[in-house]
Amino acid sequence: MDIKLLIISTFFSLSILLLTSIISCYKLPEKNYPKCFLLFSIFFLLGQLLTTYRNVLPDLLSIVFGNLLLVIGYIFLYIGIRDLLNLNAQWNNRYLIPIGVMCIGFILFTYINYNLAMRIVIFSIFCVIYGLIIAWLFFKNKNNGFEKFNTISAFLFLIGVILFLIRTFKASTIKIHGNYLSTTDLMISLVYGYLLIMTIWLTILLTKYSNHITFSKSKNNK
């Protein structure tokens, strides 16, 4: 699929997730996960926007800030999923550690030793680690009344883990065109395709959980 179409589709799906998150925040103000999904959507939208226009924007914005926003967004997604599964899901200062490490890595391999492959490696490893944790959380808690949805979620995150593992090993061969929107590298297209599928699924998952809680609340109030 054309990279431009994938990028546009990804932005659209992230926007739908953002709107769904806003609605869920309104319906379930006492819950934390809609807010986390909303923050994930916002950070990922901004991050994708900055990284997409890397040939127009300065490196500080497009590479460092852009990728850092993606990292922060993923962490909020992790927190939101923990809350979704009724696990402890509070912001903890320990989350600043991976954010700080990634920030140093992006700066190091952008300004001190410009190295695209290493930036791909550190970001991919980050996604692998958190993807594995999230997949495990879904597998471990799949019997909470949403077994089918949680099992599918776990497998989708595992697919992402495999994708980013391959991306890690192929980092040195990934080529980014001077005009990013003309990129033809398969791995980049696969990442956007995966993000598109995941945002659609996260929208479905958020809607399912939110509707279930809303229905239960209205039933109890009768």
Blueprint (SSEs and pairs):
Layout: H1 3-27, H2 33-52, H3 59-84, H4 96-112, H5 116-140, H6 147-169, H7 186-220
Description of the molecule:
- This protein has 222 residues and is mainly α.
- It is built from seven helices and no strands.
- The mean pLDDT is 87.
- The chain has one domain (3-213).
- Helix 3 runs parallel beside helix 5.
Descriptors:
single chain; 222 residues; mainly alpha; 7 helices; 0% strand
Task: Please summarize what this structure is.
The protein is 77% helix and 0% strand. It is mostly helical and 222 residues long.
- Radius of gyration, taken over Cα atoms and rounded to an integer in Å: 18 Å
**Could you give the order of the helices and strands?**
HHHHHHH
Determine the fraction of residues in helical runs and give it as a percent range.
over 70%
Count of distinct structural domains: 1
N- to C-terminal separation?
50 Å
Mean pLDDT equals 87
